[in-house]
């Protein structure tokens, strides 16, 4: 009887171990080792957007949600066996890199565009998404093309890559640099500017829901998005690359998009996470 009970307990323990391993795709089968510094922390500190649906936003309880937020949770699950082993910090385009460099976070998953200038101060993961930019204007605006913004006031987000594009291509535009998406929309509706230049993924749902605005419809500044990592942390770059690739392989991006994006916009967002579908420049 004693042996039967012992055999049962051993079998039960083995079954639970297998079940746990199956429930956490991570425990990191096929992934590189978690860097020692990250492992010692016991959790992952990630900077995410909190005003940028569907990638990062706050729900009714004030908790971060979104596609990149879900990706951060999945990387934590791969690294630590639980999606709860993550500490989020809301970041903006202006403060996300300083937050990383200052050691406040270990990873930027916050709509971070890849650029040569940024690559001088941080390292990037492999590109994991792509996108373009557009400009939101009042519904009665006479503006038809980007060149029409010459001499006009254009809202941009501090630290965003639309700034460099306008400085180079429409240098006479007056740029009004603001902190958040809601600030930009409010300023446009208050007629403080002639347009609001930002990522198409953000402006498209705003235009759909707000009958007072429309998109110019001229796509510019095609770029790629990646995770941001401090200089010199190659093992961490390798781990993040492997984790993102595994999440994509497991079909999780499409799952998260369907959780955070309206049905008629889902395929466009899913396609933007497929680098092979980026327009050829």
Short overview:
The protein has 281 residues and is α/β, with parallel strands linked by helices.
Question: What order do the helices and strands come in, and which of them pair?
Answer:
Blueprint: H1 2-23, H2 36-41, E1 44-48, E2 51-52, E3 56-58, E4 64-65, H3 67-80, E5 86-90, H4 96-101, E6 107-108, H5 116-119, E7 123-124, E8 129-138, E9 153-157, H6 162-169, E10 174-178, H7 181-189, E11 195-199, H8 200-209, E12 213-215, E13 220-225, E14 228-229, H9 234-249, H10 252-260, H11 266-272
Main sheet characteristics = 6 strands, mixed
Low-confidence spans: pLDDT under 50, at least 5 residues?
A: 1-27
Please identify the structural class as seen in this structure: alpha/beta
Indicate the CATH class of the largest domain.
Alpha Beta
In DSSP terms (H or I, runs of 4 or more residues), the helix count works out at 11
Q: What form results from the Cα inertia axes?
A: globular
Query: At the fourth CATH level, what is the homologous superfamily of the largest domain?
Result: Periplasmic binding protein-like II
* CATH architecture term of the largest domain: 3-Layer(aba) Sandwich
| Series of secondary-structure elements, N-terminal to C-terminal | HHEEEEHEHEHEEEHEHEHEEEHHH
How many structural domains?
2
Number of strands: 14
- What Rg is obtained from the alpha carbons, in whole angstroms? 22 Å
**What portion of residues is helical?**
25-40%
The separation of the N and C termini measures: 73 Å
Key features of this structure:
globular; single chain; 14 strands; six-stranded mixed beta sheet; 281 residues; disordered N terminus; alpha/beta; D-Maltodextrin-Binding Protein, domain 2; 20% strand
């Amino acid at each position: 009887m004693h042996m039967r009970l012992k055999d049962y307990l051993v079998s039960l323990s083995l079954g639970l171990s297998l079940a746990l391993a199956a429930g956490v795709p991570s425990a990191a089968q096929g992934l590189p080792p978690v860097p020692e510094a990250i492992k010692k922390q016991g959790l992952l500190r990630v900077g995410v957007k909190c005003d940028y649906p569907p990638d990062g936003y706050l729900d009714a309880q004030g908790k971060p949600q979104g596609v990149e937020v879900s990706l951060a949770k999945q990387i934590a699950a791969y690294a630590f066996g639980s999606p709860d082993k993550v500490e989020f910090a809301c970041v903006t385009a202006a403060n996300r890199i300083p937050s990383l460099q200052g050691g406040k976070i270990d990873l930027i998953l916050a709509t971070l565009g890849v650029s040569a200038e940024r690559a001088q101060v941080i390292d990037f993961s492999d590109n994991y998404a792509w996108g373009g930019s557009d400009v939101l204007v009042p519904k009665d605006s006479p503006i038809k093309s980007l060149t029409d913004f010459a001499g006009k006031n254009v809202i941009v987000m501090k630290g965003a890559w639309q700034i460099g594009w306008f400085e180079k291509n429409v240098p006479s535009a007056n740029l009004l640099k603001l902190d958040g998406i809601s600030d930009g929309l409010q300023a446009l509706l208050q007629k403080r500017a002639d347009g609001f230049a930002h990522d198409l993924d953000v402006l498209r749902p705003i235009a759909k829901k707000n009958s007072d605005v429309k998109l110019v419809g001229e796509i510019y500044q095609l770029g790629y998005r990646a995770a941001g990592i401090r200089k010199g942390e190659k093992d961490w770059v390798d781990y993040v690359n492997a984790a993102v690739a595994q999440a994509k392989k497991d079909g999780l991006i499409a799952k998260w998009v369907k959780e955070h994006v309206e049905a008629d916009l889902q395929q466009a967002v899913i396609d933007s996470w497929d680098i092979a579908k980026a327009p050829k420049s």
